[in-house]
Design goal:
Distance between the termini of chain B: 39 Å
CATH architecture of chain A: Orthogonal Bundle
CATH topology of the largest domain in chain B: Rossmann fold
CATH superfamily of chain A: MetI-like
Oligomer: heterodimer
Helix content of chain B: 10-25%
Largest sheet of chain B: 6 strands, mixed
Number of strands of chain B: 20
Helix content of chain A: 55-70%
Strand order of the largest sheet of chain B: 6-7-8-3-9-10
Shape of chain B: elongated
Distance between the termini of chain A: 62 Å
Number of domains of chain A: 1
Number of strands of chain A: 4
Structural class of chain B: alpha+beta
Structural class of chain A: mainly alpha
Number of domains of chain B: 2
Shape of chain A: globular
CATH architecture of the largest domain in chain B: 3-Layer(aba) Sandwich
CATH superfamily of the largest domain in chain B: P-loop containing nucleotide triphosphate hydrolases
Strand order of the largest sheet of chain A: 1-2
Order of helices and strands of chain A: HHEHEHEHHEHHHHHHHHHHH
Largest sheet of chain A: 2 strands, antiparallel
Number of helices of chain A: 17
Radius of gyration of chain B: 24 Å
């Protein structure tokens, strides 16, 4: 039976969708899905990078032992005040989420997510080696702690700076447009350039910051090798680097607020800082959530700043998770253990991604 | 409470002057409506009273105080915006009390005043809702409530009804009139709708291109317009105009074969003039033949007949609802000579 010419070419909507999605799905599967499951699989093996490269059979299945070797130790016990810093923050976080929920300032999901995060912050640091005990991997948890500290400093730093900049640079004057571009420019630089710039900035001899401290009569700080300052230094560089996107998101959020509200505010005696606090800030709630969660996901993956500026030092104070994974895998060739750490990192970031998804869908009452 | 006085008020944006020296006296407790076509500067003028636009020249007094250079919050004014401008993250009660909170009023006092305003506007059941959960009319009421709570010397309304549907607009118009009666404060109201102006105002200010065309009570403007613009703007449907010229001491109107009887002081020969008659003052004369009845709209209570003159000029005549006129008839018109107005075509001024 002769078929109609057009009929052969006509695709149903579903077929068209599949065909158009196929290239993406193929790449996604080959470069993301497959490596992910391969990573999980590797994490269940004793897998030496070099040995397996030369002899594919040189690996052996060990179950969850890599996880145990990385995260657990001998004679581990739990106490409420083993690591007071984190645990007090955890308790305060739980109280804050309960308070916010009770007073109706936070929705159910937001409060629940905050509460769970705070609970984890209280419970996890409580584990510590008991009498005669020890961690199997003494560097892992401090590294996780460093990473969390880095995120805990960089995220509020970026968010607050970007929001204030956006509020200051919102407007139609030429100077503001130029400044917006300038502040965004740092975003396009690669991490190598950024760290190079800031290594020079922090240099105790010719650095701008050292010159400024000397100008005011202080002695220059050796930022990158002083234990108390190295983390601050890479946080500052990171804030400068990742300000742009956050600022653009805040600008979009601010421009979305009706000008009439500020005029009503002017009549109600809310101008300047009061207008920012009572009108701008509450209307930016969604943008703030978006920026914070995106920045958390981004900064948990910090690697270059620590690797290039401080080399994880001094005394491991800026050693971060991705750098530790990298070293375990490619310097120590312990691919199995490195994969176990990577899966741990994935779980953290996956948690925040889900949080972002949930918060994004939560309706304002 | 106090009146508002504008003396030679000027507004410039760079080189462009949009308000050209306005002098205006608004009495204490008066309901004053600024009306005019879009772009006439009515909103700008009110925003200058509010302090949301800087005044480029002249003075604005509220009561005895010169407020020309004061911040909006210092002027003792409160404003209802066309878009309501309610704070979306605050409840109705918080929205209404926000101005007092910013001025450091104690909480119990705020609560009392909010409750009082809510009672006046029947907003009590809505106090804990957010603006998103309100209808347009309710939002508008909250916006009005916010001004009442502030207890200002002068209330400002910037086209407050133009975002509402027709039915609600009539209801709110009545409510605003009732509110004015109840609290008796000075109110300035901006609108482009001359029906709102006529029904609400004690005093109408007709503006065009940044200048006052005429100020007066609604019926005075209707009965005694100073110029062709005001005559055409006030009244609905608008006044009819017919071109003419003064020849040999008499008015010649090309639209009429037989010139109608008039009772007017005529200017010098050669002056080009326009004769103005309102639709409601014209009567159809079935015996006449000067006009063609193009269309008749029967609204029940009233009918509007659309007439075409041989000169191409169009007239609208309001006749009674039961009219037996039909489309495409040839008709004439008649009118009471005392109800006709004469305007100078070149200056637009009324010739009396």
């Amino acid at each position: 039976m002769p078929r109609h010419q057009g009929a052969r070419l006509a695709l149903s909507q579903r077929q068209a969708a599949i065909i158009l999605l196929l290239p993406f799905l193929a790449v996604y599967a080959v470069f993301l899905v497959y490596p992910f499951f391969k990573g999980v699989w590797i994490s269940l093996h004793d897998w030496n990078l070099m040995a397996v490269a030369f002899n594919p059979d040189a690996k052996s299945y060990v179950g969850l032992r890599n996880y145990e070797r990385v995260m657990w130790g001998q004679n581990i016990t739990w106490a409420a005040w083993a690591s007071p810093g984190f645990q007090i923050i955890g308790v305060l976080g739980m109280l804050a989420s309960a308070f916010l929920y009770r007073t109706g300032r936070a929705g159910k999901v937001t409060a629940l997510a905050m509460g769970i995060a705070a609970l984890l912050l209280f419970v996890l640091p409580g584990f510590h080696p008991g009498e005669g005990g020890r961690w199997f991997d003494r560097r892992f948890w401090p590294t996780v702690g460093n990473t969390i500290l880095f995120v805990g400093l960089a995220v509020p730093g970026v968010t607050i700076t970007a929001m204030l900049l956006a509020a200051a640079l919102d407007g139609e004057t030429r100077a503001k447009a130029v400044l917006r571009t300038l502040f965004f420019l740092s975003q396009v630089l690669s991490v190598t350039v950024v760290t190079l710039i800031w290594q020079i900035m922090f240099s105790p001899r010719q650095g701008l910051i050292a010159n400024l401290t000397e100008l005011f009569g202080g002695s220059p700080i050796v930022w990158l090798t002083a234990e108390g300052f190295a983390m601050a230094a890479i946080v500052i560089a990171t804030i400068w680097w990742s300000l742009g996107i956050a600022m653009i998101l805040f600008l979009a959020g601010i421009q979305d607020i009706s000008k009439d509200l500020y005029e009503a505010g002017a009549l109600d005696n809310a101008t300047g800082a009061k207008a920012f606090w009572y009108i701008t800030l509450p209307n930016l709630k969604r943008t703030i959530t978006l920026v914070v969660v995106l920045q958390i996901i981004l900064h948990f993956q910090v690697f270059g700043q620590s690797h290039l500026m401080t080399g994880g030092g001094p005394n491991d104070t800026t050693q971060v998770l991705v750098r530790y994974i990298y070293q375990t895998a490619f310097r120590d060739s312990e691919l199995g253990r490195a994969s176990a750490m990577a899966v741990f990192l994935f779980v953290i970031m996956g948690g925040f991604s889900i949080l972002q998804f949930v918060l994004g869908r939560e309706k304002d009452e | 409470m106090s009146g508002v006085t504008l003396s030679n008020v000027i507004k410039r944006y760079g080189d462009v002057q949009v308000i050209h020296g306005i002098d205006l006296e608004i009495e204490n407790g008066e309901f004053c409506v600024f009306v005019g076509p879009s772009g006439c500067g009515k909103s700008t003028l009110m925003r200058m009273v509010a302090g949301l636009e800087e005044t480029s020249g002249g003075q604005i007094h509220i009561g005895a105080r010169d407020v020309t250079r004061l911040d909006p919050s210092q002027r003792g004014v409160a404003m209802v915006f066309q878009t309501y401008a309610l704070y979306p993250h605050m409840t109705v009660a918080e929205n209404m009390g926000f101005g007092l909170k910013m001025n450091g009023t104690p909480k119990p006092e705020i609560a009392t005043k909010v409750a009082e305003a809510a009672r006046i506007l029947k907003l009590e059941p809505l106090l804990e809702r957010k603006p998103k959960a309100l209808s347009g009319g309710q939002r508008q009421r909250v916006a009005i409530g916010r001004t009442i709570v502030r207890g200002p010397e002068v209330f400002l309304f910037d086209e407050p009804l133009s975002n509402l549907d027709a039915e609600l607009r009539v209801d709110m118009r009545v409510e605003i009139a009732a509110l004015h009666k109840q609290i008796g404060a000075t109110m300035i109201y901006v609108t482009h709708d001359q029906v709102e102006a006529m029904t609400l105002a004690d005093k109408i200010v007709v503006l065009r291109a940044g200048r006052i065309e005429q100020v007066g009570a609604p019926l005075n403007l209707y009965r005694d317009p100073d110029n062709r613009f005001v005559a055409g703007f006030i009244g609905s449907p608008a006044m009819n105009f017919l071109q003419g010229e003064i020849r040999g001491g008499a008015l010649s109107l090309p639209a009429f074969k037989q010139p109608p009887a008039l009772d007017l002081q005529l200017p010098a020969d050669g002056t080009r003039v326009e004769l103005g008659i309102r639709p409601e003052h014209l009567r159809i004369d079935p015996e006449g033949h000067d006009f063609r009845l193009e269309l008749i709209e029967k609204l029940g209570g009233i009918s509007y007949a659309y007439l075409n003159a041989s000169t191409g000029e169009r007239l609208i005549v309001a006749t009674d609802g039961e009219s037996d006129l039909t489309d495409d008839m040839d008709v004439g018109i008649s009118f009471d000579p005392a109800r006709a107005y004469l305007f100078d075509t070149d200056t637009g001024l009324r010739l009396r």
